[in-house]
Task: structure prediction
Amino acid sequence: MYQKVKGTYDLLPKDTAKWIAVERAIRNVSKLFNYKEIRTPIFEKTELFHRSVGDSSDIVSKETYDFLDRGNRSITLRPEGTAGVVRSYIENKIYAEASSISKMYYMGPIFRYERPQKGRYRQFSQFGAEMFGSNSPMADAEVISYAVSILKSLKINDVTVHINSLGGKESKMLYREALVKHLAPGINNLCGDCQTRYQNNPLRILDCKVDQENELLLNAPSTIDYLTNEDKTHFESVLAFLDVMKVDYVVDKNLVRGLDYYTNTVFEIKTSIANLGAQNTICGGGRYNNLVSDLSGPATPAVGFAFGFERLLLVLEALEYQGDIDYTHLFIIGLGDSVKEDVMQMTNRCRMGGLITETDLNNKNLKQQFKQSEINNARFIAIYGENEKLEGKINLKDKQNNTEVTIDKHQLYNYIVAELMKPAPSSCSSCGEEDSCDTCGGE
Ligand code: ATP
Ligand code: MG
Result:
């Protein structure tokens, strides 16, 4: 018996509906913000991640899946989405297109060799977005509001945006000096990782999951006190734009984020919903004004975020979100061997015309087929036996309106389409929500 690889999971057919509903909510909100999808490969040259995410980041130093391909090239399964998007932005010269601003999003698998636990896997999925070409604080605020809007569209309201600013190169350097000085007397009491970080990248000590309650870290100097005037003004404007858009946030002075490329604004969205445990961060992001030029592209300011899909789904589970309700338009019950060819023909015709149609493939009896139609949540049930065949008729039940008619069998498709076109009831037929329904997509 084969078993799945540690840290991976199967998404089973019974659970995909929720994922699809979340993907749809993401695509709908992305459209409102005018972001378009980009799909880049799930593996890239190892070097790309060393240069972008940074050698000293946890992700690159100990979490990547690296391998040599048969041509002896060093390849890495992507441990995050931004590096590939930036590589593609530069390689395809997207910066040279008519619009000076490019807005794109991605969804797909991400790989990190981590210790698996609830909400933490070795293959997981991220949805992320990137905006290139604006250094305006409006861009930071737009990106944050986009991330929050996705959660709101899924009716996840118990979220807090934690926000901070690291400043640009100059501010980051000043802060680094102050932090090193502050940590020096107590560094030996911190964990082994922190001692290495102290040499390579002291900012990341603030992101340590082991020492996060240590007094030394809690009393660390605040990045905001080391911002240049320009960086400070930028940060204050981001907050002002969030205020007018009524996006709630808390300024979190210890928020630094684990990746090297961030400059100025960094943010995380957290939820207090219990079943996430320690994995309560569902989204992380920020501005990265130097990454495009660091990867040999033209200097281009950029800002983005990434959501963990699995954690989003765990939150929805806690909120008992049902996702889209599975349904079929039509279930055709065929009774007897002699009707099977007609049944296949009608099923195919209805499917080709766009009706979600199901039929019995296992010669079940009438009662069992009715049961199947219920499991498939069919609105219409057509019954076609030997008598109907002789008369060229078909019996049709409409479960929504509780009606039953006998119609010419050649009219089956047209009849159902006409019924479906009739004005929708004022409440959503799937979830019962009054008037228009944002969530389930029902009418
Ligand atoms: P964490 O602090 O929880 O390790 P991170 O800072 O490493 O998260 P990011 O690199 O910012 O995470 O990735 C963005 C989002 O991806 C996270 O907020 C989280 O929702 C999700 N995520 C990160 N690592 C994993 C993982 N191993 N399994 C599932 N989701 C993950
Ligand atoms: Mg991590």
About this structure: The longest strand covers residues 102-111. The two ends are 45 Å apart (CA to CA).
